[in-house]
Amino acid sequence: MLKHIPGIGSYYAGKICRYRERLGGFVSAHQIKEVEGLPQGIERWFVIEMKPELHRMNVNEASFRQLVRHPYLNYEQVKIIFDYRRKYGRLKSWNDLQLYNEFSTDHIQKLLPYFTF
Asked: Quick check: is 20 in a domain?
């Protein structure tokens, strides 16, 4: 299906699918721009027609490796999550991490669709 889009062949289709899998699903067509190397303006060919079925990850049960593989979390953020879990126990929500500079309000909004507690 992706290969029917102008400028998308097997290589880019594979990159898009792998990114979608790591992410847990797309909630917005604009997320296509996050896939490295795609032709500029390609997102105009993408539409999210219905509420997508996302694969959500539990922040309290996921391993370090699982969390660090998510495109919206980096090593330092995952380290903070694990330090918090070690010191205080389970996280109840992203609000538990808002005091850390690494978790801005905008960034937390981006994480919300992909994680549970």
From this structure: yes
